[in-house]
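Researcher: Here's the sequence for the chain we discussed earlier.
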Amino acid sequence: SRNIDTTQASTFFSDATNGTTTAFPEFPLLNYNKGLADYHAKHNWVVNFTWDIPFARKLDGTAKTLLDGWQLASISNWRSGNPLTVFVQANRSRSLWQPSLGPGIGRDRASIAPGFTYETAVIGRPDQYFNPAAFVIPPAGTLGNTGRGAFIGPNHRSFDLALVKNTKITRLLGESGNLQLRVEAFNLFNRANFAPPSLTAFAGQADNEAPLTTFGRIRSTVTSSRQIQLGLRVTF
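Model: Thanks. This is the structure I predict for it:
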């Protein structure tokens, strides 16, 4: 499925990705602004389960105490990346209106260089998500030819797992007495899920300037590294 719109409140007034204020071209240019919504994700799979391990149910005595009552639980998420827009810092086209700043203030979009496509412009590495050679600065007074949300950011993969042991302690705490031991692993495979890269390709002050050295760099992740947590719970 696809989510398509002509603007997002979060990106019309601010760009949370880069931490700077921006705007898209004026509302009469609706076709130019039409693109994938900022929250669009082509695929989003969420799988969770809880399995009561059954192998020791027929045992008794010490063997049952040690081997019965185990559970395995998991939550996993596989999600495609969100749309990205590549910018020129200056408003060379003079097409933007940032309500709080005035006319002609805001950011334009970069143009794709001849011989490149949206797919080949993406390298995908954390230190260089985009190929700088794939973008050129549009001439003054013109709009860049890259689409809004035309590129897709890093995907997301997470797998959490918990192993739980429930032991009845009815002799000590009555009929409902239970001792639960939990071992939980978050981001079990220690996968780095990267935040969006820097999206400003050019400063926009000159016609022949080189791309910014910070363009396409990823500075952070959106999930933590693997964490293991132990828990003990008594209910009665």
